[in-house]
Amino acid sequence: xxxxxxxxxxxxxxxxxxxxxxxxxxxxxxxxxxxxxxxxxxxxx
Length: 45
Fold this sequence. Notes:
This protein is mostly helical. 76% of the residues lie in helices and 0% in strands. It has 1 helix and no strands. The protein has one helix spanning 11-44. It starts with 10 loop residues before the first helix and ends with a helix.
């Protein structure tokens, strides 16, 4: 969650922390989307 703030080692470490953050946020969005979609499917039945 705070990987970018704890990055040490210069620009390369900051880049890796940014990539990790983007991947985590993308996966989180996909999981939330899946959950909401399943909830709507369940309510529709």
